């Protein structure tokens, strides 16, 4: 299993970014995938997850602003981030694992991780 994020960058508050996570080595039907973020001084936080039937769970902090999606033909997971706030500044990671490992927003639900992509939001 391999995961590789891209699309991070620096934006002003209120702006948008779309993150991508190119994947290989597993079936989207059997796996849950998620986005996490890690900000300095904080623990890694689960942002959103999507399962094999496209059911989603969002953290309260991003609900209504972020949207997760996937393209099975391109083996790519996306995170569309709108109305970004300075508190969204973090390293963003995609994660994946079999649905029966937990499929939630806990780090322990996922064994496979990308290397991360930095998002910086200025006020």
> From the alpha-carbon coordinates, what is the Rg to the nearest angstrom?
13 Å
Mean pLDDT metric: 97
Pick out the low-confidence regions: none
Shape: globular
Instruction: Name the structural class.
Output: mainly beta
How far the N terminus sits from the C terminus, by CA atoms, comes to 37 Å
Determine the number of helices (DSSP H or I, runs of at least 4 residues).
0
Major β-sheet profile:
7 strands, mixed
Give the helix proportion (percent range). Answer: under 10%
What is the total tally of β strands? 11
Topology as H/E string?
A: EEEEEEEEEEE
In what range is the share of β-strand residues? over 45%
What would a concise description of this structure say?
The chain is mainly β and 123 residues long.
Please describe the topology of this protein.
Layout: E1 2-6, E2 9-12, E3 17-24, E4 31-38, E5 45-50, E6 56-58, E7 66-71, E8 76-81, E9 90-98, E10 112-113, E11 117-122
Parallel strand pairs: 2-11
Antiparallel strand pairs: 1-3, 3-8, 4-5, 4-9, 5-6, 7-8, 9-10, 9-11
Descriptive report:
It contains no helices and eleven strands. 0% of the residues lie in helices and 51% in strands. The strands form two sheets. Strands 2, 4, 5, 6, 9, 10 and 11 form a seven-stranded mixed β-sheet that branches. The model has no long low-confidence stretch (mean pLDDT 97). Strand 5 (45-50) and strand 6 form a beta hairpin. It is mostly beta strands and 123 residues long. The protein is globular and about 40 Å long.
